[in-house]
Write a structure and sequence with these properties.
Layout: E1 4-6, H1 8-21, H2 26-41, H3 52-60, E2 71-76, E3 79-83, H4 89-107, E4 109-118, H5 124-132, E5 136-144, E6 165-171, E7 174-181, H6 188-197, E8 206-207, E9 213-214, H7 218-221, E10 227-228, H8 233-250, E11 267-275, H9 283-298, H10 314-326, E12 328-330, H11 332-344, H12 349-355
Parallel strand pairs: 3-4
Antiparallel strand pairs: 1-12, 2-3, 4-11, 5-6, 5-11, 6-7, 8-9, 8-10
This protein binds nicotinamide-adenine-dinucleotide.
């Protein structure tokens, strides 16, 4: 079966209609739909509208809060802790970053931890929010779902999540540099997308339940389940540990232990540092040095099969331009799950097709 292709506006309208059916107010509909559709636009289908069926099931079963907010539980000026109260992460992280940006205007820096939020989605979204305000940011994220997904370096079974690391660097008059990746060799959602499409995975990404290498994406989703491997051997594993400790221990949101296995949640904790480069006293030097370095590094002669050296954040912008022009492809399994989610909250499949412009 071939992918359906839908415009970003049509997809946004469809997602909002489903969220409205599940009781979200207009603001929540907008924040969640804009986030998911932007994830698809930037090519991160793993964090796009394919997440919605999970969100809707969790909202219907009362596992996360609809129309909630980020509660500021520690307010020490430049230092803040938010409790998400299991509300939509797209709302909680937006509110936390919005206040962080305000505080950076006062103090030059804000150190923010978020605990107990529902899934905060594509972390680059939050670095982009900071970069749009001219601010540098670093984000360490971890989370809990009903099970662990990634094996430690040297281990054979899953002990923690895909713990993304993200950093954003604004460039006056130019697009920001946004580095945003899971510390597993592949994001778990991308394994789900591969499974839905009937594709196999690259070598050395996944272990099966016996701790042996496999290329079958079902080995991550169909019990007995295996484990993803961390990026970059011991170094990527070390970064994942830091994401868990900064995101989970510093925020008070918690880290993975055996006792947390089996809980029906999809919670994220995130620790962010947001800095105003102008307040560090060198924003002109910063802009010039960034320009010089970018010119130098991207002038490296491209390897065979590579058109040109790209900067972190560029592939996402390239895909966004293409998908805005040509539409967003969605595989039939994912679209079927989205339609089933609509039906589960009393929104007819035909209505979703209509609002999506299909
Ligand atoms: P990925 O492997 O596609 O890597 C993305 C990063 O690498 C981006 O910064 C991108 O610009 C850069 N990049 C890619 N190709 C490049 C090239 N040729 N040259 C220069 N830079 C390049 O990302 P991923 O690991 O699959 O993660 C996907 C998304 O999943 C991320 O947005 C991440 O935040 C999200 N995620 C979220 C959670 C969560 O719990 N909320 C968990 C895991 C992942």
């Amino acid at each position: 079966m071939t992918d359906i292709v839908v415009s970003s506006d049509g997809l946004n309208a469809a997602i909002r209609a489903i969220l409205a059916g599940a009781g979200s107010n207009e603001r929540e509909q907008k924040l969640v739909a804009d986030h998911l559709v932007l994830a698809n636009l930037t090519g991160h289908d793993s964090h796009g509208v394919g997440m919605l069926p999970n969100y809707i099931a969790s909202a219907r079963e009362g596992r996360h809060k609809v129309n909630g907010k980020a509660e500021l539980v520690v307010d020490a000026g430049a230092l803040m802790t938010f409790d998400g109260g299991t509300s939509y992460g797209q709302v909680v992280a937006f509110e936390a970053m919005t206040l962080a940006i305000e505080r950076v205007r006062q103090h030059g820096v804000a150190v923010v931890s978020i605990r107990n939020s529902n899934h905060v989605g594509r972390i680059g979204h939050w670095a982009e929010q900071c970069a749009a305000a001219g601010l540098v940011s670093i984000h360490f994220t971890c989370g809990f779902a009903n099970r662990t997904l990634v094996a430690p370096f040297g281990g054979t079974d899953a002990r923690f999540g895909t713990n993304p690391f993200c950093a954003g660097f604004p460039r006056p008059g130019e697009e920001p540099i946004i580095l945003d990746f899971a510390t597993s060799k592949i994001a778990a959602g991308k394994v789900r997308v591969a499974m839905n499409k009937g594709e196999t995975l690259p070598d050395e990404v996944l272990l099966n339940a016996k701790g042996k290498p496999t290329t079958d994406p079902k080995d991550l989703y169909v019990p007995p389940t295996g484990a993803l491997l961390p990026i970059g051997g011991h170094k990527g594993y070390g970064l994942a540990v830091i994401c868990e400790l900064f995101g989970g221990a510093l925020s008070g949101g918690g880290t993975w232990t055996k006792a947390k296995l089996g809980r029906k949640v999809n919670v994220n904790n995130m620790f962010s540092i947001v800095v105003d480069p102008a307040r560090l006293g060198g924003s002109e030097v910063m802009a010039e040095e960034a320009r010089n370095f970018v010119e130098w590094v991207t002038a490296s002669p491209p390897a065979d099969g590579v058109e040109r050296v790209l900067l972190p954040g560029e592939p996402e912008r390239q895909r966004k331009r293409k998908r805005l022009a040509e539409g967003i492809p969605i595989d039939p399994n994912t679209w079927g799950e989205v339609l089933a989610a609509a039906e589960s909250v009393g929104v007819a499949r035909t209505r979703i097709g209509q609002v999506a412009g299909l």
